[in-house]
Amino acid sequence: MAKFPLIPAFGLIIILALSGCAATVAPRLNPIPYYTYYPASLSVVTQAAQQALPQAGMHLAGVKQISADTVEVHGFDPEGNAILITLHAESAAVTRFTARIGLIGHLKEVEEIEHWMGKDVGKAISATPPS
């Protein structure tokens, strides 16, 4: 009879431990959808993305033209997580950037890629489409 009260206590300990892990990991997750607009053409932003991955310490695996106005840039971070950058031409002078690293995002690494892309594109980044 004395063993039964320990089972709920053990369950509570497990739940508290897991919630602590989630609180530690949560700030690094990439919210979906995560996107940024660059006031530059698709070709300029594609070139910037290709240059940004190595500059950010990541590996560029390749570029795939999905359609006339959409390009995917693929790579890997230092831990081996897959990187998918999708670039979509909103107009001739505005390109939307979305990125995903691994299954859960990795916001810090996405921001590092954006930092280098901003340097390569040479223009400001915005969260809303530039006018």
Question: Would you write up a description of this structure?
Answer:
The structure is a single chain. The protein has 131 residues and is α+β, with helices and mostly antiparallel strands. It is built from three helices and five strands.
Strand order, sheet with most strands:
1-5-4-3-2
Q: Cα-atom Rg, whole angstroms? A: 20 Å
Approximate strand percentage: 25-35%
Residue share in helices?
25-40%
Question: How many angstroms separate the termini?
Answer: 71 Å
Ranges with pLDDT <50 over ≥5 residues? 20-27
Shape: globular
* Integer average pLDDT: 79
Structural class: alpha+beta
The count of DSSP E runs of length 2 or more, i.e. the number of strands, is 5
Order of helices and strands: HEHEEEEH
Q: What composes the largest sheet?
A: 5 strands, antiparallel
Task: Count up the helices.
Answer: 3
Gist?
With 131 residues, the chain is an alpha+beta fold.
